[in-house]
Each structure stands twice: as structure tokens, then as C-alpha cells.
Amino acid sequence: MKTTSSKTMEIVDAGGRNGWKTWRVTVPWEQVSTDYNDILETYCKVRIAGFRAGKAPRPVVEKRFQREIMDELSHRCGMRLGREALEQVDAEPMGPVEAVDIECVKDMAFQFTVRFHPMPEFTLPEVDSFTFVNDGTDPKDMISKRLLEQVSFEVPDDLIRTELGLRLDEEIDKQDSEWSAATDRVRLMLILKRIARQEGIEVDDEDVEERIERKALELGVNSDALKLEFEKGGMRQRLKDMLLAESTLDFLIEEAGT
Prior knowledge:
Blueprint: E1 3-5, E2 10-17, E3 20-27, H1 33-44, H2 58-64, H3 66-88, E4 98-103, E5 110-116, H4 139-150, H5 157-164, H6 177-199, H7 205-219, H8 223-232, H9 235-256
Helix pairs in contact: 1-3, 4-9, 5-6, 6-9, 7-8
């Protein structure tokens, strides 16, 4: 069983099943204590019977909201540390990364299992091999079509169902055009992610924050509240992937000289 350790994280290969790869991750409490204090500070502003708003002692707040605080800490740190763990072992996930079997107790080591579909092996076309005829077609559409024609691999049903927003008990005919279109969208995103990795194209958290803030302004909602919704719903990583895809397509268009 392979184990990868650093001063801040221990990662143990837990094998795989049904196309999923799993790693068991352990980090010291110090790596999540800042997140814990941030979440606690938020709950300290909540009004508690017998105290003025924001005036309840921290121990009282901790006891009153212990479950809510630990649930939020588990979600926040499981997702963040899961991505960090995969970076440490140089694993390339095909789709969303999940943090499961979380053990979260104050002042104790934070433990969880990170699971994901590993990226399949496939050969990319030469990025400078694209040439186009200027016939009025959107260059991004042309490149996308060419990539889908030249790169083929199987996409797990889980990822396609997620793309379609299907519930676990919801069925769809895999011969349906909707399923086919979703498969192409997922496959294209994965191809672009692999090209981005090869060419050193990156999207940082500041880019994601900026896009969410712009969206909040468009919708007329609080940006902090919208950021929290993106984080809880797993939409933040999806947005980051979309921005990466946009940047990669822009790069390919520039390389093609269109």
C-alpha cells in the first residue's frame, strides 16, 4: 500500500473500485484550525437566547452550534484538502473530487477519503496542427469539433449524469441526443484540461473570485453569499474548469493564427 507523507499531510493509497480511485488523507488539526475559527466567528454573530447578538461567549456558541460548525468544517476542508492531496500525489482527476468518510473532531487529526475518476490515457493532437478556413464559423466551435473528432475515450456514466443534473433514481436513454451532447461536452472539457496541463495554462483562485463577483453584481446579490453557494454546491470547481477551458481555447486559437 503506497503512502505519501509530508509535514502537513499523510496520504495512503486505498485502492479503487468501479472506476473510482481512493486515497485516505490525514492532516493535523493545525491545518484546519483557521477554518474552524472562521466558521465559529460567523456563528458568534448569531443571536442566542439570553445574550445580545454577538455577545454570547465562544464556549456557549461552540456547544450550541457544534454539529453545524463541524459539518461546515468537514465540507470546506474536505474539498480543499482533497484537491491538495491529489496535487501532492500528482493525480489528475477526470471530474469532480469527492471527500467522504470524514472524521472531524476538534483538536484531533482531520481524516477523510478522497475519491475520483482518474483521467484516462489518450494522445493529444499537436497544438500547432490546427488550420482553419475563415468561413464565418466561430473558431472555438471549429477547434472543439476538431478535438472531438481526433481524441476518443470512454467517459464514466457518473460524469455524464452529473453534467445532465440527473438524480440517482432518474433514468435516461443513452441513445438520446441529450446524452450524446452531454458526453461530448464532458469529453471536450477533459481534452482541454489535458492540453492546459501540457501547455502550463492555469486559472488561479483570483480569477474565480473575480468571475463570481461579476456574477453577483449582475444578479444584484451579496458576493460573499454567492461565493458560499458556489462552494457548497460544488460549482466553484466547475466554474474554474470552465474558465480553464476558455483560456485553453483562446490559446489554441492564437496558436492556429485565426
